[in-house]
Amino acid sequence: MAKIAAKGSTKSRHYWLFKSEPGAYSIDDLVRDGTTTWDGVRNFQARNLLRDEIRIGDRVLFYHSNVEPMAIVGTMEVTKAAYGDPTARDKKHDHYDPKSTVETPIWYMVDVRLRKRFENPVTRDMLKDCSDLSEMVVLEKGSRLSIQPVTGEEWRAIHALAGEKPD
DNA sequence: GCCAACGTTGGC
DNA sequence: GCCAACGTTGGC
């Protein structure tokens, strides 16, 4: 995963893509809530990005997975850096992990705020058709990473496809 | 609904 | 430390 580490460790502003199945949490939910905790991440590679790389002010693409149409549906901003995910200590929660404690949370989350819901979502097909985006992690065959680095070039190209000004 | 690709677990 | 078995993800 050297490529991911390299992408995630630049000095300039960091850009990311967070996946969510809209049945679990959608852009509409975020429009309603304004801000949310990005909890439930239970993959070590994604956890490491959350805990070690993602900072306040970083920009995030919101991606709807596993639905028709799969698409980037808006942007978010990180408003709180990583802290222990309390859902890991909630026995009744789907993502309960008995190994998680207050002292050693194992799993982390960040807070995010909606910046923009795209009036015209950028569908997966549009991403695939854009030569500037052929390296995107989300397009890699078999990629299951739910927290992914995005380059500044990709960020700008996606905004161009959405007809939005990059911010 | 299918199933390939992937990450994790646990026996050895 | 290996790797088979298992469960999950997520595009198709």
Would you mind describing this structure in some detail?
With 167 residues, the protein is α+β, with helices and mostly antiparallel strands. 24% of the residues lie in helices and 29% in strands. The chain contains five helices and six strands. The protein has helices spanning 2-8, 27-33, 44-52, 124-129, 152-162; strands at residues 15-20, 35-37, 59-64, 71-84, 108-123, 147-150. The longest helix is centred in the C-terminal third of the chain and has 11 residues, at 152-162. Residues 1-10 have low confidence and may be disordered. The protein binds a DNA duplex (12 and 12 nucleotides) through residues 19, 21, 43-45, 65-66, 70, 124, 141-144, 146.
